[in-house]
Every structure is written in C-alpha cells, then in structure tokens.
Amino acid sequence: MLEVQALSKAYGKKQILKNLSFSVKPGEVIGLVGENGAGKSTLLQILATLSNPTAGTVMLNGESYQVNLKKTRRQIGFVPQDIALWDEFTVKENMIFFEKLSWKHKNGDELRKLCYDMKLSKWNESVKKLSGGMKRKLNIAVTLIHEPNLLLLDEPTAGVDLKSRKEIGAYLSNLAKSRGKMILYTSHDMDEIMQLCDRIYCIGEDPFYYDVLQKYGERPVQL
Ligand SMILES: Nc1ncnc2c1ncn2[C@@H]1O[C@H](COP(=O)(O)OP(=O)(O)OP(=O)(O)O)[C@@H](O)[C@H]1O
C-alpha cells in the first residue's frame, strides 16, 4: 500500500502541491488529472524518490521513504514523460542493457516475454526505427524488469495511436488486477482515464477537470 500524508512541495516561493493526503491499494489503478502545470509530474517525481517534498511523508508497504530510501526504491518503477532509451540499440539490446542495471536478473526469454506481452514484437529492430507507440511500450517494458510493486507513469500514452493505447491500457490493467501492482498514471485523455482507472485524483485548484469528470458521471477525488 502507498500512503501519502500531508505532502507539500514548493519551488522557491512557488507552492505547487499543498497538503495532499491519499492512499493506493495493491491492484488499484489511479488516474492523476489536472491542468498543465498543476503538479502531476512533480507528484510522480516525489513518489519516484527523484525529488524531495517540502513537507509530508510517504510510506510504501510500511517502509518510509525518509527512513529506508534504498528499500523503497527497489519497489518502484518510474516511466518518465520523455522517452529514455538508446536510439542506436535494438529492442533486445535496450532490454539487455537495462537488465544489467536492474536489481533483478532476467534471462533473454523473460525479457522477450515482457515485450511480447505488450504486443511489442520487433525484438531485433533498432529503436530509432520504431514508431512512437512502440517506443512508449519499450519505455514501459524496461521499467518492469525489476518487478516493481508501484508503477508510476507520466503520460505513457501521449502521442500513441488508439490501438497501441488500448494495448498499453489492457496490459497495465492486467498488471494491477492479476499481479496486484499499484499504478498511478497521468493522462489528458479523459476517455482513457475513465476506462482504465479505479479512482481519479484531480490536482490543482482549477475546478475544470472535476466538473468535466462529474459530467461523465465520475466522482473524482480533489487533492
Ligand atoms: N525544477 C523545477 N524548478 C522550478 N519550478 C518547477 C520545477 N519543476 C516544475 N516546476 C514548476 O512546477 C509546476 C508544476 O509542474 P509539473 O510539471 O509538475 O506540472 P504538470 O501538472 O505535470 O504539467 P503538464 O500537464 O504540463 O505535464 C509548473 O509551474 C512548473 O513550472
């Protein structure tokens, strides 16, 4: 379980996140929505241990980020908004490279299966020749090598066509439901958020997203 208590973040005098408290249970997919600049990426970066909050606490499966950073880090997978892959390497070479950096050992067949499960079949293709959607899938696959319990995804389907979007959505949903992963992800696509997420958290003070979601019949949680 992920437990966030009274979390705040300021950059200098600019307050971005104000006193957020929420939790995520195993098997849950949470959608984070909010206007540009509301602080969605900032929140994911804090939950990924890449940035420190100004105040507040985060606990992952009973371990405090503040007290046991190494142990919590091993349980987290973070997919950044920007694709972070080796362009000149093939899909296979990227998977092998990231496996070497990983905390868990995986053999070639296991690495290949991670890609195939996401319908990413171009194992020997160089990344520069892949479509945007394929790159996004590979970006997710490398993050799953160490089998994180908490998966944080920053706009994983941005610029992805509808078919790949559905494939990524189905894969993430299956990860949560059959393997109990906790997933937090951001998107500006309301239909996708509605289909995929068990709960929706709105960040920021602008009531726009809250109102839109209510019109869809959803009851988002205002953070
Ligand atoms: N390192 C930083 N230093 C100063 N300000 C920052 C830094 N990182 C982010 N910000 C500011 O924090 C605010 C929140 O940014 P963030 O990227 O978290 O928003 P977001 O909700 O993810 O936006 P988007 O939907 O455009 O991705 C913005 O005003 C941004 O300019």
Summarize the structure.
Helix content is 35%, strand content 24%. The chain has helices at 40-47, 69-73, 91-101, 108-117, 132-143, 162-179, 190-196, 208-215, and strands at residues 2-11, 14-24, 29-33, 55-60, 63-64, 76-79, 150-154, 182-186, 199-202, 221-222.
Structural write-up:
InterPro entries: AAA+_ATPase (IPR003593), ABC_transporter-like_ATP-bd (IPR003439), ABC_transporter-like_CS (IPR017871), ABC_transporter_ATP-binding (IPR050763), P-loop_NTPase (IPR027417). Belongs to the ABC transporter superfamily. GO terms for molecular function: ATP binding; ATP hydrolysis activity. This protein is α/β, with parallel strands linked by helices. The chain has one domain (2-222): P-loop containing nucleotide triphosphate hydrolases (Rossmann fold), CATH 3.40.50.300. It contains eight helices and ten strands. The chain has helices at residues 40-47, 69-73, 91-101, 108-117, 132-143, 162-179, 190-196, 208-215; strands at residues 2-11, 14-24, 29-33, 55-60, 63-64, 76-79, 150-154, 182-186, 199-202, 221-222. A six-stranded parallel sheet has the order 6-7-8-3-9-10, sandwiched between helices. Strands 2-1-4-5 form a four-stranded antiparallel sheet. Helix 3 runs parallel beside helix 5. The longest helix is centred in the C-terminal third of the chain and has 18 residues, at 162-179. Adenosine-5'-triphosphate binds at residues 11, 16, 34, 36-42. Residues 11, 16, 34, 36-42 line the site of adenosine-5'-triphosphate.
